[in-house]
Specification:
single chain, 66 residues, three-stranded antiparallel sheet, elongated, MmyB-like transcription regulator ligand binding domain-containing protein, MLTR_LBD
Length: 66
């Protein structure tokens, strides 16, 4: 049996703080597997947080060259 569950979840990240995402879980019980998707609607604070993390995640802040 395959089924979907949808919930809203609050996530916390040290750079952007708390934000909400929609969490959808596809359950495939015959195979004991789950597929978890986190999504946001454009224009929401959750979407803005994920967009910021997409940029911040590409930067190396560990070393500064002079």
């Amino acid at each position: 049996m395959t089924s979907w569950r949808t919930r809203r979840k609050a996530l916390w990240h040290p750079l952007v703080g708390e934000f909400e995402v929609d969490c959808e879980v596809l359950l495939v019980s015959e195979r004991d597997q789950q597929l978890v998707l986190f999504t946001t609607e454009p224009g929401t604070s959750g979407h803005e947080a994920l967009q910021l993390l997409k940029v911040v995640g590409t930067q190396d802040l560990g070393q500064v060259s002079h």
